[in-house]
Amino acid sequence: MKSGSGTIDRRIGFGKKIVLGDKSVKNCETIAKTMVDAGFDVEPFEMDLSSRESILAMTPAEELLSLDMLKPENIRDTLHAYQMAKRWNEKRMMYESVRWGKRGARLNDIAPGIIVTPLAIDEFNGPRGDFYKNMFAKCPARRPGTSDEMANMAELLMSDAGATAS
After folding, report:
1. Model pLDDT, residue 130
2. What pLDDT, in 10s, does the model give residues 10-66?
3. What's the rounded Cα separation, in Å, for the pair 150 and 37?
4. What is the Rg, in whole angstroms, of the alpha carbon atoms belonging to the chain?
């Protein structure tokens, strides 16, 4: 499991190895300590999606990182990198769902919009704050999501009841 806030991990991660990644090593270590103290098996990693070196340290992705679209000169900024990563993860999950579905496996993916996390709060209060306010004004909920909402969805999808919800 990978996570940034730890809410989903705490809800469904007991008995599993949790790899916790965050751009802020301090945030990551704080969440990891809380979870380890509560009995979880957590390994914190500093993870910066905009850093090629950080991605390689977390995941062997040499083939992906050799693609032209992922060369540093083709990525406008960290928001662009984040948006591309989310989009590609969706496409990867679609592909894997079909492939693994043929074997009877069930894959679920949760792809929310903006979720309130320490990183999101930094973004709300940073130079892109107006961008996010405009995005919220145009979305049906008119607000960001919460970690608990995502944990509720993950708990359902990963449970036996989720077999009929997917």
Report:
1. 92
2. 777 778 888 888 888 898 899 889 889 999 998 888 888 677 777 777 665 666 667
3. 23
4. 17
Tell the residue number behind the tokens 């992922």, with chain if given.
Answer: 70
Sheet holding 2-3, edge to edge: 2-3, 17-22, 41-46
Portion of the chain with pLDDT greater than 90, in percent: 3
Q: Using CA atoms in the order 152, 153, 154, 156, what is the torsion angle rounded to 10 degrees?
A: 90
Scored b (16 or more CB within 10 A) or e, 33-71 reads eebeeeebebebebbbebbeebbeebeeeeeeeeeeebe
3 state SS for the chain: CEECCCHHHHHHCCCCEEEEEECCHHHHHHHHHHHHHCCCEEEEEECCCCCHHHHHHHCCCHHHHCCHHHCHHHCCCHHHHHHHHHHHHHHHHHHHHHHHHCCCCCCCCCCCCCECCHHHHHHHCCCCHHHHHHHHHHCCCCCCECHHHHHHHHHHHHCHHHHCCC
Closest to 29 measured CA to CA, from 11, 16, 42, 17: 42
> 67 is written with which tokens?
């693609």
Q: Quick one: pLDDT at residue 63?
A: 66
